[in-house]
Amino acid sequence: MEKIHLLKIKLKELEAVCNEHHNDAGELINILHAAQGIFGYLPREVQEVIADRLNIPVSRVYGVVTFYSFFTMTPKGKYPISVCLGTACYVRGAEKVLDEFQRQLEIKVGETTPDGLFSLDCLRCVGACGLAPVVTIAGKVYGRLSPEKVRDILSEYYLLEQV
């Protein structure tokens, strides 16, 4: 496994977060949320720093990171895409929308495009069942999607990169 090098400035931010939470192991989830905000994901090295600061085993940090689906140990794209596969969305064609995202981006679920712009994941419910099928991209909700709309949606984000 390749070791990554954490930027010193980001490490200082992480240490400040730990200090703000008094290096309290009871604040692990809050610290992990903040750490993921700083680094974009939670690689092994970040987990080791947190474990050291909170004086807990790395296995405990890893257990929390792998238990909660919000946390990720792999880098996400600048524009993370989540396709809802909850019942309402699935019944209304979410699987075909997902297939089209995979085809257009040439990646599978759980992967990130080589340019780092998009990552693709699934989730179980966005809570917008009346708009099914639903996709979120970088926090923006797109409802009543069809495979035909995927290209236009992705184009919006490619245009943002050209500005």
Largest sheet: 4 strands, mixed
The number of helices is: 7
What is the architecture of the largest domain at the second tier of CATH?
A: 3-Layer(aba) Sandwich
Radius of gyration: 18 Å
Helix percent band:
40-55%
Q: What strand line-up does the widest sheet have?
A: 2-1-3-4
Estimate nothing, just give the exact number of structural domains. 2
The name CATH uses for the topology of the largest domain is: Glutaredoxin
Counting DSSP E segments of at least 2 residues, the number of strands comes to 4
Oligomer: single chain
End-to-end CA span:
37 Å
Protein name: NAD(P)H-dependent oxidoreductase subunit E
Family: Belongs to the complex I 24 kDa subunit family.
InterPro entries: NADP_DH_HndA-like, NuoE-like, NuoE_dom, NuoE_N, Thioredoxin-like_sf
Keywords: 2Fe-2S, Iron, Iron-sulfur, Metal-binding
